[in-house]
Specification:
By secondary structure, the protein is an alpha+beta fold. It contains 15 helices and 15 strands.
Length: 529
Amino acid sequence: MKQLGGLDELFFAMEQPNQCMHVAVLGIYDPSTSPGGKVRLRDIMAHIRERLDVAPVLRRRLVRVPFDLDRAYWIDEAEVDLEYHIRHIALPKPGDWRHLCIQVARLHSQVLDRNKPLWQAYVIEGIDNVAGVKPGSFAIYIKFHRAEVDGEASAQILRALHSLISMPEHSHISRKPILADAMPTAAELYARSAGNVVPRVVRLWHAVSAATLKMSSLAGKVLYNRVAGGSLRERLLEQLAWPTEPVRTRFAGSVSSRRIVEGVGFDMAKVQRVRKWVSGATTNDVFMAIVGGALRRYLQECGDPLPAGLAAAVPASHQDILPGSDRGNKVNQHRVPLHVESESGLARLRAIRQSAEDTRQTADVIGHDLLRQLADELPTRITSAVVDSLLGDYLNIVVSTVRGPDVPLYLAGAQLNRFYPIGVVKNGVGLNITSFSYCGNLWATVVSCRKMMPDPEVFASCLNQSFDALVAEVEREESGNRITADAAAKPRAGKRRLAMPAASQPEPGTAPHHPVRARLSAKTPYRNA
């Protein structure tokens, strides 16, 4: 039995009917790679059943303390009802990409049942008219509660659920016994809650003391680096990447219970080409530059202003995650401006790279785990109230990139061709754009509220246009540099005429040869003195 951390409990506290706190993925599979060329539902269930022990989140469920006197606990169940967790549906004809996105958005709007392990999967057939998808392919939408895993951990769990070979690996050999947790009694839960009071107060004192020292260190750095002009408050807010004035966009305010989902794909080779062109840039920086350009185009098309302080929350994990590890939420979020005021994609990328570097330096000063430490010790009600009151003014958008495998993955013999990560939106933060790199492509998914973004296909077009414009700008600079280099390497015609013939070059250590004097010497030889 394992108790939830502060961030884990916070995600449960923030869950409301209009904001479901779960993350998901949508994978599209080609069954022609399986030995029989077909994959049935029972094959998928058998494949997942063999991997229930690899990912602990597939077995554990929530147990709350009576009257919420303490944080809840995870317990491992011996048996998981796969017929409940894995469901089979089909799209109506024509079964194109728009129908698939609408169906996934409906599934993503439904809250998970807290009385069972907090995950659910849907096998979706009837997607034959999706562009670029082979006939007979199927999709799988699977979601986990955000309290269980962060983006990196969910990606690792899904990697563990797949195989590196197309041959099905499940067998009929009896499996080893499962060690499950016994259901705790109310008396045991009360006793655990009472025993946690004193240690938590001590840990809270240490966390507050550490936070005070770190903020003092940051204030000293601000005083040391302070330039002429601007108050100390403005310099401190600038160092914390906190806006001096609240930034409001169409993605602020309360979200509805209806979601939109849209996905696009980018050529990873072109993404890496752009990344290498700007020194020090990361793949996440390039993706943020693409998102910034798309937001600029979309807001202009909607007739909205372009706020100069528009920024995104960028999740950053600072621990290695192994398949099957049980680490919970240990992710931090950095605020990085998107620089939507810049029309040039490369100028935006360079500005984002510098802003991200400044944010990382600030995080090094105050610590990467400060937020998690405070959330672990403060009462959840206080943490939730602070997040709800400040988060909407701090940012309205979440942008993240998760690195995936470069080799094909298989599920029950079917090859995974596309992999779309699907994030969370909440009140005040109504837009989430997450990308996942897989087999030479960067698959990005847009999640928002339908009233905030009623036309997701338009935003998808803006993403593609922003990416194409950024790549074209890099190609223009590369072409210009090649022309300049060729012009510099090409010798001038005047110097070529003045150059001496090879035969007339003097030997080392001899006097220079003069052709006029040579001719005169041949006609009128000098006498010896």
